[in-house]
């Protein structure tokens, strides 16, 4: 199953199985029957996740746009299913296409350019020896390349899928997908390099092709292992769950840390740090410095400065375990070995929500990421750290007498700096101090504020300009977006991708009029894409933007879908309209419960409430789809309609940039309402069908 859709892949006549030249019979291999479909589904999801991670690490700045890679995967898999009846089987070409994609990216490096007045991208000031193409050109090319590879893998899944009754096949598909996400998460936990991913993919291909594997497939699989093996073993880069991390030795005991090919931070001895980094300590009350919290601790530079300023205890929060490990090993001041320091490998906002400690100084130390939380949304790892509610949470942890808060960055643009300064002014009730160093665009700015402004020794106070961008909120956490509108380059890119999607589906499924009879499935696909996105960002807010939380959410979605399939395999709902009513009620409840109410709960009741609120609509949505799809007449056209809907949902997700994430629930409710209205005739037909006709249609199960 492709994460991001409630699509029940089309199952119908298997059609012809003409193998590609020099390729194996698609029904042959070491695996057969149920195990084969399980393995194919495992391969499909594992390859999708690997492509998202690997392309984001090798195409510079693509990690800011991983959602486009996900949409490409989604379209490709859908096209693969639409081609399931074709006489020419493209699955034997899948390892060839995958290897060619890897070869092209490794030998013809490009980058996505990030020049935008509407949206700030950190790292964009770096000088990199690559060819930068406009975003609107690069992203569609990546999208089409990924879609091509995943279409071939998806076709293999579809041809095996068609040999089972629809819900029986989907059950195996989900189990394979769960295995795929668990395997990839385990490799991420172990900091595995791409060679490990290549070996998993290669072994799965070999098992699927079996003894009749062709020369072309052997060469492609071997080439994939050699290419990614050379990349993995030929460099000292380390792959964390978030980045490809590169270390550079500099003069004076310093080290540079680059992530995904972009300079990110350095490891610098405290004695060599510029004076501006000591500003919060000079401005804070001089009589004491007890507890200090550093969020974005990274290589340990700011932790070392806090210790040098005689802090009694430092909580150091860093989201990336490998960057922390590098700092612990390389920082010449050895701050992480100091008994006064307690490291925490977690998300900064999650730490603020879970900690009960009080601090004399809280420092947000350059906590800017270069990647998204997941391919489901436009949310960055640190997006929830700079909202109005996050700063309020930080203030609640300050010493109520004279606690100090500070944050710094190379803000690139004055509107972003003013937006954050205004956020501090709103939360604390008075303007912060501002210290600026350097010249634009990489101008370093330190913002400092205290619960007691009289206790702060401040040379320059920030003055609010005539116009300032309002503070980001938990519902609209896009702090780097100027205003509440979708940037123009997004609109152009999305338009090109939609055109490619329509063309791809048209070529794979034939005349578009065949799909018009399944408009309700179109609306279901769009609605579920948005529903799953809302679940991902909700859990990121409640429990942190870590890769582990993200993996748990995706696994939870799959389990909810699996539960819906199991119920639908054994129960035919004679009045499907009741499911729509229950679904809309669940959506209304999710919309009515504000996130701040859940954040006020302790961890366990918050988790229980979040699971019930997020996964009840997902379960009911899949019940709605299963009951409708089990009696669909033309499964290929029905699947195509649902695919186009999911693509539309992926595009509609960008509406959150303008209206916020809570608005997605309204769109979901509207779309499911449209699905009900346009599918009423099918619901009446299903309800009036005799009991004997209710079991799933499809081919008998074959082993």
Strand ordering within the main sheet = 9-8-7-10-11-13-12
Report the count of strand segments: 13
- The pLDDT mean sits at 84
Low-confidence sequence ranges = 1-28, 124-130, 691-703
**Span of the ends, CA to CA:** 21 Å
What does it look like?
The protein is α/β, with parallel strands linked by helices and 703 residues long. The chain has two domains: 416 residues, MFS general substrate transporter like domains (Growth Hormone, Chain: A, Up-down Bundle); 193 residues, Vaccinia Virus protein VP39 (Rossmann fold, 3-Layer(aba) Sandwich). It has 23 helices and 13 strands. Helix 1 packs antiparallel against helix 6 and helix 2 runs antiparallel to helix 20. The protein starts with 32 loop residues before the first helix and ends in a 15-residue tail after the last helix.
Sequence-ordered SSE layout with sheet pairings:
Layout: H1 33-58, H2 66-82, H3 94-107, E1 110-112, E2 131-133, H4 135-161, H5 166-189, H6 194-209, H7 215-233, E3 238-239, E4 244-249, E5 255-259, E6 262-267, H8 279-283, E7 291-295, H9 301-308, E8 313-318, H10 321-330, E9 341-345, H11 348-354, E10 361-365, H12 388-396, E11 404-410, H13 414-428, E12 433-437, E13 444-450, H14 488-509, H15 519-543, H16 547-570, H17 577-592, H18 595-599, H19 603-629, H20 635-652, H21 656-659, H22 662-678, H23 680-688
Parallel strand pairs: 1-2, 7-8, 7-10, 8-9, 10-11
Antiparallel strand pairs: 3-4, 4-5, 5-6, 11-13, 12-13
Compose a concise summary of this entry.
The protein has 703 residues and is an alpha/beta fold.
